[in-house]
Amino acid sequence: MQQTGSNHVGSVMARNIGRMTAFMLVVTFTAPFAAYYVASGAAVSALESQLQRSLVLTNRAIATEVERFRYLPLVVGEDARVRALASSGQDHAVLDAANSYLQTVVAQAGASELYVLDSHGVTLAASNFATPESFISHNYSFRPYFQDALRTGEGRYYAIGVTTKKPGYFLSSRIDIPGGPPIIVVVKADLQPLEVTWEAAGVQTAIADRWGIVFLSGNPDWKYRPLSPLSGEAAKRVAAERTYDGANLDEARPILPTGVVPPANGAEAPALRVDGEGQRLLAKFSSIEPDSWTVLAATSTADIAKLAGFWALAALIAGLIATGALYFLHQRALLIRMRLRQGEILELKVAERTQDLAREIDIRKRTEDELRRTQEGLIHSEKMAALGRMSTAIVHEVSQPLAALEATLATAGVLAEKEDAGKVGERILDARALVKRMQRTVKHLKTFGRKGASELEAVDVDAVIRNAIDLAMPRAKAIGVVPTIEARGQAPVVTAVGVKLEQVMLNLLLNALDAVEGRPAPSITVRRAADATAVSVTVIDNGTGIAPEHRDRVAEPFFTTKLTGEGLGLGLSIATAIVREFGGEITFSEATGGGTMATMSMPVSKRSAPPLEAAQ
């Protein structure tokens, strides 16, 4: 019965998994299309907003540039030198004065050109009178800016100059002269800096005139091309007015695709998708009055497809992950239900294994404690062995002051019987010095021989060197050598156990003493060097040296080249282990001229060292 119930639960769960998985798969493969559509719409809206801002800025820039010169013709027309042109005829003095004045105004105002026309459109005076492209005597009556100014009082027109072949924006004003014919003052403004700015910034911005012909553009391929095909009337007017003199408009291809025209209310109309030179563009339009200009701002839509594709791919991946996670969760739930039936057995096995692990941990702890005690014992035994190797020299070091002390006290007794207090005091001071000498030796031995020091502290390396040399000095005197110390730089501090570090230093010194024993002119030098990060102590002897085949094995446990009974070969092994415990290393190399260089290197500590008990 229980088996049947389990099978029924399993079949129900399997059906649920199939239904939910199928549903998630449908959602997974539908979501990318929705994500693509939403992301594409959002990207288009963002680009439209960007284009709208670009149009606003462009319109303001154009208005600002035009406003600079709008009132210049009227202001110039109020000058007496200009008004005198209406009635002077060909008076050279009047013409020269007017020309010079116009030239000065152009230089100060920053306009391109400034000139005066009579009522028939003939140029009377011009700012470029002294140049080969002078406007004087040229007739510009065919230009709309002259006709509009003569008829309404002012005119404006953008065109390519028929004389200079340079494009510009012409602003004109009629100046009425009492008792005589009117004159027309014209200023030509250069709008090319706007085009240069757009082209340098890579902005797809253009301005088209009322016929739809682009005359300023950040895209050089658009210049002097119509937005849409020109009508017959527009082509005739442009040719009659010589608006774009020298530009071949007949062969210019329209910028917008066939059938697409700029919207009348460009600011409110949606953006149009147009074909650029090898790319798809999104374009918006706005108008500028009173010239009926059309401003076009466009941008590439290549990133829209990439962005929409990215979100579609992200939606697909998210759906696949969700489907996989759902399937995994249901499989996990099914697996958990199947394993619940075996819970008691698993709990029992876990409990047994936990007990085994607890026993294993306890055994390992005891083993580690035993190994630690054994290591400390080996270190202490090696210290005692070192003291044993120096026992004869130490006994001599202590017995010599004792004999001298006995003789000094006997002399003091004799002097006391003679009641010679001054000499008795001198002998007592001598005896005290001898006692201090023995105390120093015994104190070093007690400190070095104590067991159990293991706390890390800031240790003065120079103090360690001095203490180790004091301990080794009796043996050094016995073989006739005095170790010398060469210290460079400020006294370094390391993080270590002072007594253990002294043991390492003493071991290196004793090995050096063994090496130079019986050698002619024995020499031992302790060289200490330090920088901001590390300190090195090198013990250099002129002994027999270490054979190259033994140099890599000298730190191995129980390896020794000494005669049987002279050592167990644990000294350098223990010393190496101690130094490595403190983050350092011991290396061996051949000294210059023979002998051995044993170098102990350790990192410098950032803590300051308390005063160590050094030799007094």
Mean pLDDT: 76
β-strand percent reads 15-25%
Biggest sheet, open or closed, and with what strands and sense? Answer: 5 strands, antiparallel
Indicate how many domains the architecture comprises: 4
Query: What is the CATH homologous superfamily assignment of the largest domain?
Result: Histidine kinase-like ATPase, C-terminal domain
Question: How many beta strands in the DSSP annotation?
Answer: 17
Secondary structure tally, helices = 15
Class per helix and strand makeup: alpha+beta
The separation of the N and C termini measures 95 Å
Percent in helix:
40-55%
Task: Name the CATH class of the largest domain.
Answer: Alpha Beta
Based on the structure given, which CATH architecture of the largest domain is correct? 2-Layer Sandwich
Rg estimate, integer Å: 53 Å
CATH fold description of the largest domain? Heat Shock Protein 90
Task: Please state how the strands of the largest beta sheet are arranged side by side.
Answer: 2-1-5-4-3
Task: Indicate the overall shape.
Answer: elongated
In the predicted model, the low-confidence regions spanning at least 5 consecutive residues are 1-5, 563-570, 612-616
Domain Histidine kinase: 393-606
Subcellular location: Cell inner membrane; Cell membrane
Function: Member of the two-component regulatory system DctB/DctD involved in the transport of C4-dicarboxylates. DctB functions as a membrane-associated protein kinase that phosphorylates DctD in response to environmental signals.
GO molecular function: ATP binding
